[in-house]
Amino acid sequence: MPEGPEIRRAADKIAKAIVHQPLTDIFFAFDHLKGYESLLQPQTIAAVEPYGKALLIQFNGGLSIYTHNQLYGVWMVRRLQNDLPNYPETKRQLRLAIHTAKSSALLYSASEIEVLWPEEVAAHPFLSKLGPDVVNPQTSEAEVLAQVKGDRFHRRRLAGLLLDQHFLAGLGNYLRSEVAFFARVYPNWRPMDCSEAQLEALGKGAIALARQSYQTGGITNDLAIAAALKAQGWTRRNYRHWVFGRAGQSCHVCGTTIEKVILAGRRAYFCPCCQPV
Q1: Does residue 156 sit in the same domain as residue 94?
Q2: Does the residue 173 lie in any domain?
């Protein structure tokens, strides 16, 4: 599932293609949304805003299209060819298409698509309960630290908590492992098991790694280390993260072999030296 950094990068790309551009057509695959096609097509899109792992495409008439990629959804932006929509060759199912005179924004395989009025956005069962969005530049470190140190979550295991969008929006499975490593915390501890310094590091790491991943297209490792490893011929898969996906390889900090465990039903990675159980 795409995490907050990937959704925000997708939002940037979509916005560049369709915001403030006259629309030529809108297509919804789901029958219950078909009636909105003729209503939205004459309007223009005012903004494309990510909310954690969800997107809101906001129209100047007040309506918004809400989408959540879940596990399989993917956005594609394509330039028109010979003034016709340019659809990719794929076995995925097209769920939503927004066309302008120059480009198309295409959403494939997603099942969660809604059209909402402003009051419905405010009351939406996912959006209304989101925690601070760690990728959003408007989210302050103080807001994130308040969540990390607050009583509401202090008894929850980090393995599940760092995936909970009510806690911190935008984190997902790879960021879960990376943030825990950054804080030098075993990923199944609870906030109440952590020192004050570790709690501070969890909050700072959640923001720093998520935003660095957004800016770099997915690199959460120290950028100097990543650059050096790349120069040595390491593949991106092996240099981009501190620990995620690196079971059996050496820790970039201490050289200890990275281990893989299943926590909260998902794979997690940690260094047994830097993050002792």
Answers
A1: no
A2: yes
Q: Catalytic residue among 2, 5, 132, 191, which?
A: 2
Catalytic residue among 3, 114, 143, 178: 3
| Residue 277 resides in a domain | no
| One domain, residues 117 and 176 | no
Reduced to 3 states (helix: H, G, I; strand: E, B; else coil), residue 271 is: coil
3 is catalytic: yes
| pLDDT tens-place string over residues 160-211 | 999 999 999 999 999 999 999 999 999 999 999 999 999 999 999 999 999 9
- pTM of the entire structure? 0.92
Q: At what angle do helices 4-18 and 196-216 cross, to 10 degrees?
A: 30
In the set 9, 53, 176, 184, the catalytic residue is 53
Q: What residues does 133 pair with on adjacent strands?
A: 169
Q: Could you report the per-residue pLDDT of 229-244, keeping only the tens digit for each? A: 999 999 999 999 999 9
Q: What token pair was written down for 227?
A: 């650059």
Q: Give catalytic status of residue 53 as yes or no.
A: yes
Q: Which of 204, 266, 267, 272 is catalytic?
A: 266
| CB atoms inside a 10 Å sphere around CB 211 | 19
